[in-house]
Amino acid sequence: MMVTRQVRSAVVIGYMLSIAWIRRNLLSLVWLFATPFSILFIITVTTRGQAFVQGVIGSLLLVLITVGTGLAGDGAWYRLEVKLLDYFIASPVHQIGFLLGIVLAGLFFTTPALVILVPLLLYLGLPLTSLPLALLAVGMVWLFSSAIGYTVSTYVRNLRNGWQSGLALSVIVGILPPSFYPAELLPANILWLAYLLPTTHAVLLLRVLMGQTIALQGWSPLLGWVALAGLLLAALVVTSRAARWRQA
Predict the structure, then answer these.
(1) Dihedral angle at the C-alpha atoms of 137, 143, 149, 155, nearest 10 degrees?
(2) Fewer CB within 10 A of the terminal residue: the chain, N end or C end?
């Protein structure tokens, strides 16, 4: 009963913070396109299409990572500016229900990009039978970045710092790892650092699912799935223990 109530609350919060807003402002659907598709365009032109597949994978992940880490700013906005968090703290909604709600709200904003990028991956060679595994991999990265973004938002004291923190996190999680470039280009000592981020494993798994051969020291598809699950679990544990709720 408690779980059902929190899930229902999350859906209502997600609708209220996304669909209800989108119906009044359709331009809100555009902003997530800007950076990922700009990078994809530059990569496609400069490599004459040779890195197009890698660029599409990177764009898909960056869209989801951006909306996840963007919770650092969104969460701060709800807490500091509109005082919406005070309402939910005084209600039966648990922190997990609120977190799921704003995570779902962010996902709704990614719909136009996903409608373009997911079919594009299928066209470029991702088997339809492998689509559930591909969505699972990118979904785990999305949840990881959302958990980190939300946790940061509970410590932000200034709204501007919230947006800045979200942008910084999106660069760290979405652009620095080998998402828009092959992991094979990284030296061995830096590659081990890349393994500490789930983005690296998700990209490599998507490449494997699309039929590419990955020959990297210390990595295998099994290790990739284990690392994804472990990093996501660690992020959720950190969020449950470190994210501040009542203090808001």
Answers:
(1) -140
(2) N
